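[SOLVED] Need 3D model of a two-part complex

Original post:
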Amino acid sequence: MQTLQTTSLRVAGNQLFILDQQALPQEKRWLDASTVEALVGHIHALRVRGAPLIGLSASLLLALLAEAGKSRDELALALDTLRASRPTAVNLMNNLDRMKQALWQEDFVPALSAEALRLIDEDKQLCDAIARAGSELVKPGSRLLTHCNTGGLATAGVGTALGVIAVAHQQGKIANVWVDETRPLLQGGRLTAWELGELGVPYQLITDSMAASLMAKGLVDAVWVGADRIAANGDVANKIGTYQLAVNAMHHGVRFMVVAPSSTIDLSVDSGEDIPLEERDGRELLEIEGRRIAPDVDAYNPVFDVTPADLIDVIVTEKGIVERPDAAKMAQLMCRKRLH
Amino acid sequence: MQTLQTTSLRVAGNQLFILDQQALPQEKRWLDASTVEALVGHIHALRVRGAPLIGLSASLLLALLAEAGKSRDELALALDTLRASRPTAVNLMNNLDRMKQALWQEDFVPALSAEALRLIDEDKQLCDAIARAGSELVKPGSRLLTHCNTGGLATAGVGTALGVIAVAHQQGKIANVWVDETRPLLQGGRLTAWELGELGVPYQLITDSMAASLMAKGLVDAVWVGADRIAANGDVANKIGTYQLAVNAMHHGVRFMVVAPSSTIDLSVDSGEDIPLEERDGRELLEIEGRRIAPDVDAYNPVFDVTPADLIDVIVTEKGIVERPDAAKMAQLMCRKRLH
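Solution:
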């Protein structure tokens, strides 16, 4: 496969490398991810993360394994293993469903490579289309709040919610971005802060517990977040803490905006109740950077939550926007063509 | 002065020692706090913390300095310096106002000692009275959620909100306590988790971003928190994140309970808007245990917020409880005698 480079994925010498998102921002470390075991390990440890990026990394690896001579059966097994590596983000499943179709073509080696590169290219275009559509909803002088990381690290392009913010910043409309640090793994404090710094966007880091207080003081104009899966009725599964923000946004009359490619919308699940929500090891709460921060106790670590559609003002996709989402509007959206 | 020992204060050999609350739970380290400079340093660094405890430690130090031969003028200056060491918790000011009265008595050395010991003794009794009154409001099988630390570490007695939980546990009524880790300084994860472990109360640690999600799942019966200052209308200033919990409790129909001695009620401030809220160095968000967890960025660090009275179900004090607090009920409460 040709050499390829995104913010956090690299193909060189027929090997896949990932930018270790657990080492950022202290260290910019590229790790080999050229076997299924290695990539699944990176995905489990969140060294590769972000709903779109997980799917793209798995697709690239399959293509590289095919080029290296793996049989169709071996690739089918690899695909299933990768597909099961994280349960909530549906982009992984969607991307691998497309890779599976390529796998059953007669000439599956070039088909898989072409499909993986097409997914990468599409993701970049999706990000651009989404960012343009979303940025139209950002008013000049906006003080926006975001949670987790939805930028260039999480996608092959400019990102989803953070892509909107990046484009709105280019348009001169961002006064400040409040960055939730996003416990337990601090994707906001480590990754979003780093990306906004690189982009030159003005921002301030806050703890996840401060958002309501800022809203009460009138310092937040809108909340912009990504999504790991969106149900047919518009309910949104996303990083733990998203729901709490949505409740507080509603209480304070602050707009709550969700940004995701339409591949995040899963019409096969009726509502958020049916979305499988990953729980992770409670030890993620007990240590930071290898240092103990709590006694050796039982910790509860659900890493996603569901925000009901009725707390959401707008869902922005590459097919356009849905205001006050419901099942009918979501179904209608899926039939639209991509924006240009 | 006689030898004295509480969970986190010690007088021995006419010196004051404090249990370093930044070193817990990894290390149980007692630090000398026998000068104004030393104690103010400990208060600023939150090595001594908890609204009641700050006031008690300052009062004990004044008494010890008087016994060591300091003049009335020197003590008056020391008192003013200690009084200004933290702006939000009103117990510090209240305790030192009582010490000031003792200072102007002719025989001020024994008067200061007697007053400091009386404050310690009163705090223990207050905690007991509050815990009994509060525990009557806890239903059998309760799953409670608490924020920050309000236990034996923060007072001379069993604590405020955590005292209620401790007594309710003795009564066999606690099924589980959800402990907010309480960023940025992790008083929940480090201190409350440690205290509940010592008391044998069943609990699970969570991040501050998980509370709403637990409430939506029906896993929280009530939220119990302390207070740093309560305005005349019942608005409550407390650790950052308290307000966010209150908004979420209201949204989910979960009871929201505030526990504090009546000395926390400041009738001189009409509403929460008039309570001075401390902001601390943003670097508290950037490092944990000396390890960098974010780029070197601008972080916003308001350490308290205000919960309006209309989000509060009950305020529990040693004078009894106030349901759905307002100015008239708060004034009435202050005229009551202490419960027995």
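Edit: Chain A has two domains: 4-127, 136-334.
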